[in-house]
Every structure is written in C-alpha cells, then in structure tokens.
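Please predict the structure of the following assembly.
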Amino acid sequence: MESPALSIPEAPSLVPPALRGILPLVIAIPTLALFHWSLTGSDFATYLLSVVGVNIILAVSLNIVNGMTGQFSIGHAGFMAVGAYIAGYTSLQLKEVALSFLPVAASDQVLFLLALLAGGAAAAACGFLVGLPSLRLRGDYLAIVTLGFGEIIRVFVQNTDAFGRALGLSGIPQYSSPGMVFFWVFLVVLAARRLAGSSHGRSLWAIREDEVAAEAMGVDTTGYKVRAFVFSSFFAGIAGGLFAHFVPIINPGSFTFVRSMEIVVMVVLGGLGSTTGAFVAAIFLTLLPEGMRSLFGALGTEGSLAQRVDQIRMPIYGLLLVVLMLSRPQGLFGTKEIWDVLPRWLPRKRRGLA
Amino acid sequence: MAQLLQHLINGLAAGTIYALVALGYTMVYGVLKLINFAHGDVMMVGVYMGYATAFAIGREARGSFLGIAAVFAVAMLGCALFGFLIERFAYRPLREKPRLTALITAIGISFALSYGFQLDIGFLPGASPRAFPEIIEPKEWLIIGDRDVVVWNWQVISFLIAVGLMVALQYLVFGTRFGRAMRAVSWDHRVAALMGIPTDRVIALTFMLSSGLAAGAGLLYAIKDTSVSPLMGLYVGLKAFVAAVIGGIGHVPGAVVGALVLGLVEEFVVGYAASTWRDAVAFGFLILVLLVKPGGLFGRVAAEKV
Amino acid sequence: MRRLAPMLLAALAVMAGACEKKTQPTPSGEAGTQAAQGQSGSTVSGTPAAGSDTILLGQVGALTGGQATFGISTRNGIELALKEANAAGGVNGKKLAIRVYDNQSKPEEAAQAATRLITQDKVVLILGDVASSNSLAMAEKAQAAGVPMITPSSTNTTVTQKGDFIFRVCFIDPFQGFVMAKFAREDLKLGKVAVLQDNKSAYSIDLSDVFTRKFTEMGGKVATTESYSQGDTDYRAQLTAIKKTQPDGIYVPGYYSEVGVIARQAREVGLKVPLMGGDGWDSEKLFELGGSAISGSYFSNHYSPDNPDPRVQKFIADYKAAYGGVPDALAALGYDAARVAVEALKRAKDLSGPAVRDAIAQTKDFPGVAGTVTLDDNRNAVKSAVVLKVGDGKTQYVTTISP
C-alpha cells in the first residue's frame, strides 16, 4: 500500500503568517461571487452545479472517515437525511419570519444559514451517537451499524407526520444558490486539507494504517474516530440542508441505502484518502448520467429506441464503475492530492492557494 | 396461541430462505473478506433463469418432480457459471488490491444487473413484477383447529430443501478436501498457496457454490411469495447480509442462526408491534446484538496481529 | 484570532450571498404569475421549435427504480396519443415530438429532468409523473419557469396547489378514499374493516387516511391499520395480525405489483373476506400476480374497460396492438393527459406558456378514455369514479359514484 501523502511543512512562503489563515477566504469569496453572478439566469447550470456541489461535500466529508481514518461507513445518506429534514423543517417554520433590521433577502440568507447550522449540528449529534459504537466495533461490523442507522432514520422520517411521511417535505423556501453551495464546498475542502496536515490528521492516518500500533504510540484511537465521525456527519448534514433548499421537495426515497453506496463509490473511485480524488470523482459521477443523456440526445431523439435511452443509462453507469475500478484500482488519485501532483507539472512552485 | 404458532411458522419460513442467501455472503466473505454486494442480484438472475425454464418446459412438466428438479438444476448451474464469470472478470484482477476496490466493482455489477433487468429489450424481462409459476401446487399439509394454523406443502418442501442444502454445505466445508482447502484459504490465502492449495480454483469454486445456493434460495423465495421482480435481489440481499452479520460474518452456522433470528424478529414485530417500524426494529436489534457481541452471535473478534 | 477571522469572513460571505439574491425575482404562488409570464415569454420566443415544424413536449417519469413499471405504462399511453395526433395532422400543421427523461423514482432527479426540459430542450409543456412527490418537485420548477405541466396520475391534493401552471387529469385522493368508503358501507354493507397500506407511498397513506375517516363517519369501524413497504413480497405477518381482528373486508390501497401477492397470501392465511382498493390496482398484471385469489375483490377506477364507448374500445385495441397488453389505468391517464395537452395546443393562440396554460384551463367536458375531463378552478379534473369487481381474468363494472 502506498504511504499516505502528507503535506510536507512548507518552505517559507511569500504570504505573511498573519494572513495565511484567511488568505483562502480572501481569494475564494470574490471568486464565488463572480461564479454566482455568471450563473444568474441559467437555471439548469444552477441546478446541476448545486447537485455537484452537494455531492462534493458528501464525498469529501465521507472521505474523512472512510479514507483518512480507514473506518468503513455506509450510512452517509442517513446523516444527510438528518441535515436535510432538520434544516428543511426549520426553514419551513421560519418561512414567514424576517429579521426586521435586515432587508428581506439578507434576512432570508441569515435564516437559511441558521437552518443549515441546525441541520449540521443535528447530524453531528447523530454522528456522535453512531461514532460511539466504534469503541467496540471494527471494520465491517461498524459498517453495518452505520447502514442500520441510515435505515432507522429513513423509517423514522417515513412514520413522522411532521416530516410529511412518504410524501416528504415540500414548499421549503428555495434559498440556496450555487454560490452558497460552493462556499460550503470550499469550507469542507479547506477543513479536510487542514485536517490532513495537522497532528490530528496524522493521528487519523495512523489509525488507518494500523490501529493497534497507533494505540501503542499513544493515539487515543476512540476519541479520534468519534471526532472524525462527528466532523464528517456535520458536513453531511450541511450537504443535506443545502440539498433541501434547492430541490423543492425532500422525501425518504432520496436517502436510501443506494444513495449511501453512491457516495462510497465516489470516495473509492477518487482514491481512498484523497480529498482531490473525492472532489473529482463526485463531479465526474454526478455529471456522467447527465452527460449520457446529452450524448444520447445528440444521437437522435425521435426513434423508438431513443425514447428508451434514459433507461439504459443506469446499467451503463454500473458497468462503467466496474471498468474504471479494474483499470485504476487505486482510484483516480490514489492517496495523492492535487497539491502534491501539481508542483511536478508546474515549472515553479506556487503554494499560496489551498 | 394459534396465532403465535402461525407467526412462528411464517418467521421460520422466511428465516430459512434468508439463511441460504446469507450463507453465500458468509462463504465469500470467509475466503475473500469481500462483502459481495452483487450477491442479491445474482440471486435475482437465478430466479429469472428458473422462471424461463419453468415456462420452457411447459405447464404439465413443471408440476412433476423432474420438472421441479430441472428448474432448480438450470437455475443453480446457470447461476454458478454466472458467479464464476463475475469472479473471474470483476473480482480476481483486484484480489491483491485494497479491499474496498472489489466492493465498488460489486456495487457496479449490482447496479448493472438490477437496472439492466428493468429494461424490456431482448431477453430482459422489464421492470414489472411477474407471477412465478406454481411449480409446487399448493396444498394444505397440516391444519390445526378451524384453519387457525395452516402449514402448506411447499413450506415443508422448501424447509426440507433448505435444510438439505445447509447440511450438504456443512459436510462440504467440514468433511471434504475441498472444504479443508476452503477453510485454509479463509484463514490465510497466501500461506494456503504456499502449502500447495490452488487458491484461485478454491475461490472460484466458492463463488460458484455461493451463487448456486443463491439461485436455489431465490427459487424457494419465489415459490413462497409467488412473484419475481428485478429489484427483489436488493431487498433480500440486504436482509441476508444483515443476517450474516448478526451471526458473525464468515461463520457458516452463524449465518443460519442469524437468519432465523432475523426472520422471527421481523415476523413478531409486525405481528405484535407496529408493522410500520419493522425495518427500524430489525436494524435496531442488529445494532443491539453488535453492541453486546461485537463480532456477531458466533464470530470472534479476531486477536489483532501485532 | 486565526480562528475568528474565517468566521468573520463566513459572515461576510453570507451578506454577499444575500445581496446577490435580490437581483432574482421570487416567483411563487399567485404573485409570481406576472414574473413568470415575462420569463416564459422570452423562453418560448427563443425556442427553435417555434420556428420549425415540430412542437416539442417533455415527459418526466420513473423509467427505472421501484416505480418503473408505472412510469413505463404512462410513457406508452402518451406515446400512443401523440402518434395518433401526428397521424391526424398534428397541431395546426406542426408535428408533435416528445422527449422522455427518467427520474429513477427520486424527486431530485425529477426536478433536474424538469429543469433540463424547460431550459435546455425548451419544451412547450411538461407531462408529469405518477408519484406525487416527484410531480411536486417538477411542479415547483415548471411553475417558476412558467411552463404548463399536466400530471396524468398524481392524486395528492398539494400537487396542483403549487400554482396556476399545474394541472391534472385524474381525481384526487380524498375523493377516491370517499368512493370506496361509501361503496363498502352502503353497497357491501360492511361493518368492520381492516386497512393494509403501503407506507412508502404517499398515495396509499392518503387513501387509507381518507377511507378510515369517511368509513368511521358513516358508522363503520376500522379494526386495525397495518402497513408494508413497496417492494416487500411477504405480507403473512400483517395478514395474520389482521385475521385476528376478524374483519368483514380489507382495504388495500396499493399498487397491483404488491396487491396481487397480498391477495394470494390473504387466502393462504385463511382470510376469505373481499379486498378493496383504488386505481393503483388497475392492470392486467393484477390477474397474473393475484391468480384466483384476487377474484371477488373490488376497486375504484377511472373507467371500465367494458365501457362500450367506441373511443375506449379503440384505445384498448390500439394499445394492445402497439404494446401487447390491456392498458392499465396509468396508461389510460397518460393517454388522456397527452390528448388534453394536444387539444389545448390546438386552441392556444400561440405556444407561449401563459397562452397554453389558459387553453388547458378551459378544458371542459373533454371525452377522455378514463372519464370525461372538466378542469375546475383548482385545476383538478372533476370526474366520477367507477367501482369494478375483479373476476376471472377480467373486471366487471359494478357502479358509478359521482363527487
């Protein structure tokens, strides 16, 4: 197995230390604003990018548990559901409320952020509950607990009138925008990168490589595992909250076991432990079915077989997964990151940007 | 009282079938440490093979003993071959790679099969569920009271077939050279290879065995519930997987016990508590078992090699 | 300090996001109509279809996943209607074409597909899905963009409440639940009934709720409510529990894919009372899956295949010729929805969203195969329901119940 690529302590950089903490934000926010502005008016791109963004958040956050810590969680959709329902429910309740000292649009966004954080916090709390059994469970048994949790959440939602039962919650105000989604994408990537390079992250890598050895070296394995879970589920909850605010309806059918598996696929395909990999794989796998739709559409739409092409997408998707894994078993990026690979291609080192 | 007995019978009937599917999971896990997520879908393919055979041999033939045997034989052998192909082309190339890699190909195959069978092109059956032909004509085998408790002939036959398959498997694993080889591979496949065991062949045979069993289980399931659909593998596969874990995955008798327990728990939750909460209770029970016995009912938490 | 700075900036980012949002109008509900009109006007004028000689329609349905069998039936019905319309000369000399997208039985995919149809393919009109949650997701997008949408078979009341661009050609859940309650109480004279609902389907839960309420109001008693999940195949536990309460009948408002098997297992555990259900039962597959066990059961439906009306008989014959099987209710409703759409397109003064919307809204006494369609002020079809009795391989008309 390849050794995980840890970021090497950086050579003295041009950025003054005081700025280093906020520099990514300084660059990211204007970029996001520009990005947001350029999308105004094209609904389809907006929607697609929002879906892509949510999947990136899910994949990058799951990568913290499955990739970096070497645990095996297949219940990510459950955390997402918690976030989606709590945030969606909060927004529905606060629909008529506006903060008087702010313009309506601004007050909506503040409330939206509150709802998101509520969803994230609830998901994190669930992550703590699920993380606790990892005190005793290893490997596939832990996987089953996460799977069971996801299913229990689904059944719970399905039986709760406040959450709309099988019909789901509809009429959630559509506050989300690609700018907001990618702001969170940015946060989760930044957090994952910072984590990977920190002493905390090194402990996670140690647990992944050999739990017993890590423990012998004085790593509080349980504590780290639980924290990794909480961290990861917080972002899954955020992703769910965002999801609830641009898809106009959330419904238990969106958070099934199959959805969890799709996120696992993104993480493994990208390369376990590679944030970049999760990022790229999430984009690729989300756009793939839509791309097939465009491709088939271009081949002609009026024949009777063409009417059936939408049914053929999913089997092809499955077969593509097999082919991709066979041709690149370590995942697209292995455990490497773009910032490990890039300097080799670029003539000069540029490491200011996270 | 009568109702309790009826629930018991229903639960056992469901449990024995989960058990056959769970055995497939557990065997493959034993030798490869791979959760074969495509297992349920392989079962589904087997059921459709049996369905096609039952129609091919015609209405008269399918009721006879030979007809039933033919349906089972075609499905089980066909599925064994299918399992062999999957192992050869989708799993074997990834044997020395990280474990999760093969899991993804398993998911890929599962998607391809369950969605592929929803197409109505060529021989593919289409999304709509179909009635499985009654290859065993239903007759009451035992009636207690005023039809308070009814046991049907096919329930008995299914039970006997299931138990027969399990006994045969137990003999195969613990009483034959192949079984010894299989256990050796499961213990440590590298060392097993050094001892002269043809690991590739053992693993391939294990896959064939588990896929064949799945087909048999699927047919019993289809006889019991009289319908087949492309998504049946997903539901049954998930339940059987849970059953295998309850028993301690990799442990052959454990899978059987786990499956029976799961079948009974589900039945009694629906019968005596709220049916809406069935799946939640089943999984809650599973988590509870794992909290008390982290390796499942029979599995041991392997001592870590340091 | 280093931790504070990012948080501060996060707050800033929110402000930035908030400011940007002001530029977007928020078309929602009645107030949004004008904005939507403005938008849709530009959408349609930009469409290549407007100039060419085809009119493009869109359909989103479940072609894969747990509800695929319903989505495919609907698609077949729509396809047949459009083929007929084109053979009859299309709409004002223009041919009709349709683009069908799959939603995998998931609302987020439905919303995505609807958005794609509206903005990329620039369809004139969208035909919706079977499952109400998917139709709701599409309705929100269609309403915001000002593109009319007709759902063939989403029966949940909230779907058409999304706005004035959303229509349906089927009756709604409260009516259908009432129909069966009335029939069970007054015609079958049942006193005590058990309910077995599909907990994964909003349709089933709605019908079950309404039935329970109405049946109790009419003096009956609902002994127990049990539930299953779409995709289950073993219902013996629920049925054994129901048997204990000794009901006079069982109301099973589910889909044929499950009901057939439920009927078999009900007979197997020794329940001999009649089963009752809704339009989800209507399919040839019901007889195949249910065998003789389903005989003697009743369900409410939009139309009776026995109806001697030549239009109905021609539809059934054409459908059989094209797809090899008797059409189910979903196919009939898909067919009706497409024909209502075609008629409206013929009447509309142009192909812009509001013009088509107004034309659809005027639909009155439209002779569909699944009943006569008149759209009321809430954009719901007002039609009567028929109750059918399941016989040996066919259904038999029993009675008609009007709203």
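Residues 197 and 227 of chain C are 5 Å apart (CA to CA). Residues 173-301 of chain C form a domain with the Rossmann fold fold (CATH 3.40.50.2300).
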